[in-house]
Design a protein that fits this description.
five-stranded mixed beta sheet, Tumour Suppressor Smad4, 134 residues, six-stranded antiparallel beta sheet, elongated, 11 strands
Length: 134
């Protein structure tokens, strides 16, 4: 008797458009490998990971969203455990990058939690809960 090969774990992070022309569209990206960082570019420029071509308030490279896989202590049941942390940084845009209901644009790199909304130009986006399953 043979057993089916278990599926390869699917580890992704995603961003969902919450307004604008792409409202409801979800973009998925691979999570960074253990101990590494993934940077997602956001802007009007062709080739940005999160492309917002129809919002004239969005700069060519408006912002960056980072995900870091931080190693944590192993246990008997889990080897090589990690925690995902997220950050958001304005890319020197003309109109700023905004978090949730804040009236002032972000300055420098700020922490971001899954489920948080952020605004690029007039377009609202959400960092979704990361998916890790096997």
């Amino acid at each position: 008797m043979s057993f089916p090969t278990p599926p390869i774990p699917n580890r992704e992070i995603s961003v969902t458009y919450m307004s604008g022309a792409f409202d409801g569209k979800r973009l998925s990206f691979d999570q960074p490998m253990f101990g590494e960082e993934r940077i997602i570019t956001i802007g009007r420029r062709e080739g940005c990971d999160v492309h917002i071509p129809v919002d004239n308030q969005v700069s060519r490279l408006h912002a960056k969203l980072g995900c870091v896989s931080v190693p944590t202590t192993s246990s008997d049941s889990v080897t090589n455990p990690f925690i995902l942390t997220f950050w958001l940084e304005d890319g020197g845009s003309r109109n700023g990058t905004f978090l949730e209901r804040e009236e002032e644009p972000i300055s420098g790199r700020v922490s971001l939690r899954p489920g948080m909304l952020f605004r690029i130009g007039r377009t609202w986006l959400r960092l979704d809960e990361p998916m890790s399953y096997g």
